[in-house]
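Protocol step 4 of 6: structure prediction from sequence.
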Amino acid sequence: MTIRVYNTLTQNKEVFETVKPGRVGIYLCGPTVYKESHIGHMVGPVIFDTIKRYLNYNGYIVTWVVNITDVDDKLIQQQHERGIPMAQIADEMVIDYLNNLAGLGVDQIDIMPKATEHMQGIIDFNQSLIKKGFAYESDGDVLFDVAKDPNYGKLNNRSIDDQQGEGGGHAGKKRNPGDFALWKSAKPGEPAWDSPWGKGRPGWHIECSAMCKAILGETFDIHGGGLDLKFPHHENELAQSQCCHGKPMVKYWMHNGLLRKAASAGKIGGKGERAAEAADDGGKVSRSKGAGGLADDIARLGGERIRFFLLSTHYRSTVMFGEEPLAETAKSLEGFYRFFERFQKVTKQRYFNLPFAATRKEGDEIDTSVPLLKTLAEQRKNFLDKMDDDFNTGGAIAELFDMLRELNKFADQKNLDRFAATAPGPEVFADADVQTLVKGTRILRELTAILGVFKTVQPKRGGGGDGVAEKVMPLLIELRANARANKDFATGDLIRNKLAEAGITLEDKKGGPTEWRIGGA
């Protein structure tokens, strides 16, 4: 087993070797909590939640840190606009963020530090940089002197002359245009902390460097974030940390691709989308298109569908977010849900309760003398090979579909559906083919657990909820059936498609009534 990771710094895939044998430290840049989180905020957490699962599966002990920026210009602006303390706004938005993480099955984060909890460490970090000659005080601000760092720009392969410095009120205080703020003097009415340079607050970049050092040490294994954070945020983090400590900050810089609207060139959230909104050119930010109101999308579409969608491409690729690709994901998931139901009817066991191998070593113990299990073992190896190659979840998911086809084919060939109407008993549990199906399905469960999908229960069919859907759906199903009987297939398809957009999937049963499902398929 050799895991290879693409390192943005070297622009090459490298063999994964940790700073401390058997242990991994991961830092992922988290949100600035000034407004509700949008789907773009979830790309990194879903990816690194899966990466941590895979590293654990391979025997590593992983500490994963996701920071919370709870002091920032945007938060201060919200404080003025809403007339409530910045801390209250941050607390509200943190709750929203945590709820959305839970909705997408992100539950592997170990530590979520807040910038305001590390103020003394930030001040100490700045003092160290000043003492070593890499930073200077200017009228209550502290600025990093990029000209003193001969390696500045190496993450983005830019020279100092190519860098774009921060504008605003700091420009007149700088020695060089590319110098950036480590500490900002307070303006009237702004939250502020005491420091050797007067009352103020930290710059954005120094927060992460200080928290990385405090929790993971001066050098750790993986620093992650969106591609849009490479410059200036990660470039500045790298510079200030390595100048302060005199050693590499991170072994592997990992950047995920951006999430874009399927019908727009701008990424979801951020400057590009705000500009599109101002121009009114079709790129307007709206809840339905993913930028904000993520809780509504999770409730409407199901967190499992969104998670599966985000993992269906390689993490370094651009992801096109929209109703059409999400509908395609729903169709893909439906095949798994149908198999889980079939499995339960045949074996009298629930997929979600199956025991499975928690480690790679344990999972290697497969009886390959049985043809089905031999085929699944080969597909499992292909899955793991894809994950070993820079955590290629998109390629790994393709192997899951192949496994699903093999399991269904086996059940067909052995006529295992004959047990569907049989009560649980010795004739079912002792049947060799049923036992083989169970063993094969446990392999599938082992791999889906790595991706963090199909962990609990499948979406429910008719029944439950607030009762509204249960009253309306029979009528819609009847209208669709009448339309199809009258060869009005356009109306029938319209009903199915509109329900799919609302997160409801219809399933036509041969010789039986049409069933429906909500909450993720």
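Step 5 (inspection) to follow. The chain is about 45% helix and 10% strand.
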